[in-house]
Amino acid sequence: CGSYFNGHKEDFPSVPYSYLDFNDGKCKSGSGNIENYHDIYQVRDCRLEDLLDLALEKDYVRGKLADYLNKLIDLGVAGFRVDACKHMWPGDLNNVYGRLKTLNTK
C-alpha cells in the first residue's frame, strides 16, 4: 500500500517532486545541514538533521502543497498545525496560506 519514493534520489513520483524541488543548491553550509542557528539563511535554506527541505519559494512546490491542504479542507479538516515554521520563509508560508480554501469551523 502507499506509493513508491526514493528519498536518497529526491524522487517522489506520486506528487511528483524531483531533485529540482528541494533547497540543496541554496544551502551555503559545508554539510548541507544547519550548522549555525544564528544564520537565518542556514536555518531556512538548509536541511534540518539531514531531512529533505522543500523549496517553498518555487511556485510549483507552493501549488502542490496548497492542493494537498485544500483536499484535506474538502474532507472537513478545520485547521492545521504548521511545525517548524522558523525553518520556512514567512513570505513563502503566506503565499501557500493565501491559496487555501476557507476552513469549515462549524
From TrEMBL:
Domain of life the protein comes from: Eukaryota
Protein family per UniProt: Belongs to the glycosyl hydrolase 13 family.
Protein name: Alpha-amylase
Native species: Cirrhinus mrigala (Mrigala)
